[in-house]
Amino acid sequence: MSMKTSTRQVDGVTIVDCSGRITLGEGSVILKDVVRELLSKGQKKILLNLGDVNYIDSSGIGELVSAFTTVRNQGGELKLLNLTKKVHDLLQITKLYTVFDVKDDEANAVKSFS
């Protein structure tokens, strides 16, 4: 099962709803393309909703870090929303949980953007 994304706007924040697997190949490429496209349109407040992502491999983790860095380098913010237990644990193990701004509530997450 590959990854699917859909985007929506809430109060100037672009929410990317992701579902499926973020893995080497298609999943990480889709994520990269979505983030690049948003930045090219000047949308720099990005919230990745990972509530329906059931698996991320090391390539997917790398892509999250890459997306985070790319957005930050262009003066934007990228935050994560609704991590599943599996993804949450993976970010804890890799010490990346402290790098990302992780939110559990969409309304609060949208408000947290400056």
- The pLDDT mean sits at 96
For the biggest sheet, the summary is:
5 strands, mixed
User: What is the H-and-E element order?
Assistant: EEHEHEHEH
The CATH H-level homologous superfamily: STAS domain
Radius of gyration: 13 Å
CATH topology: Transcription Regulator spoIIAA
Q: Which regions have little confidence, pLDDT < 50, spanning 5+ residues?
A: none
Task: Name the strands of the widest sheet in spatial order.
Answer: 1-2-3-4-5
Number of beta-strand segments: 5
Give the count of helical stretches. 4
Termini separation: 35 Å
The CATH architecture can be named as: 2-Layer Sandwich
Query: Which CATH class applies here?
Result: Alpha Beta
Relative helix content: 40-55%
What sort of overall outline do the alpha carbons produce when their principal axes are compared? globular
Q: What structural class do you assign from the helix and strand content?
A: alpha/beta
Tally of discrete structural domains: 1
Strand content: 25-35%
Describe the structure.
- This protein has 114 residues and is α/β, with parallel strands linked by helices.
- The chain has one domain (4-111): 2-Layer Sandwich (Transcription Regulator spoIIAA).
- The protein has helices spanning 26-40, 58-73, 85-93, 106-111, and strands at 4-10, 13-22, 45-56, 77-81, 101-103.
- Helix 1 (26-40) runs parallel beside helix 2 (58-73).
